[in-house]
Amino acid sequence: MAESVNGRILVAEDNKVLGDVLRFNLERSGFHVTLARTGDAAAKLLAGESYDLMFTDIEMPGMNGVDLCRYLRFELGNSDLPVAICSARGLEVDEQEMRTKYGVAEIIFKPFSMRELVALASRLLNSSAATDKQPLDASTAE
């Protein structure tokens, strides 16, 4: 049996069904999950709470996933929180920009399996070494 990480995960997902499925599967695997239905709600949570990992949809009304990453990194100055982007946009996502400009650890494309998502959460939370993270390039901040 795998050791429970019990990390605090923020999930920003506007699709109600997918958000609930993500929360259920992550909680069933031992994580503490907070679900935000909008990027704006996630930003408020990030400003007041501490999390160990964030999963965010890239397309949400109001503050989208890119804006949320920009807010996290440059408004809040948080360069340590691992972020995984969930996207249905496939080739439309500039993966290199998301990694270098916003320090995104992983980009996963929908549809994905919940087993893969839980394994990714465990890997990102267990990875305390900064070697997997590329440095942020603050000179490219907008």
Biggest sheet, strands in spatial order?
A: 2-1-3-4-5
- Helix/strand structural class: alpha/beta
- The helix count comes to 5
Percent of residues in helical segments?
25-40%
Rg from Cα: 14 Å
Strand content: 15-25%
Protein described:
With 142 residues, this protein is of the alpha/beta class. It has five helices and five strands; from the N terminus they run βαβαβαβαβα. It has helices spanning 16-28, 39-48, 65-75, 95-102, 114-126; strands spanning 8-12, 32-36, 53-57, 83-87, 106-109. It has a five-stranded parallel beta sheet, sandwiched between helices. Helix 1 (16-28) crosses helix 5 (114-126) and helix 2 (39-48) runs parallel beside helix 3. The longest helix is centred in the N-terminal third of the chain and has 13 residues, at 16-28. It is globular, with a radius of gyration of 14 Å. The termini are far apart. 30% of the residues are buried.
Can I get a quick summary?
The protein is 39% helix and 17% strand. The chain has 142 residues and is of the alpha/beta class. Strand 3 (53-57), helix 3 and strand 4 form a beta-alpha-beta unit.
Write the layout of secondary structure elements.
Elements: E1 8-12, H1 16-28, E2 32-36, H2 39-48, E3 53-57, H3 65-75, E4 83-87, H4 95-102, E5 106-109, H5 114-126
Parallel strand pairs: 1-2, 1-3, 3-4, 4-5
Helix pairs in contact: 1-5, 2-3
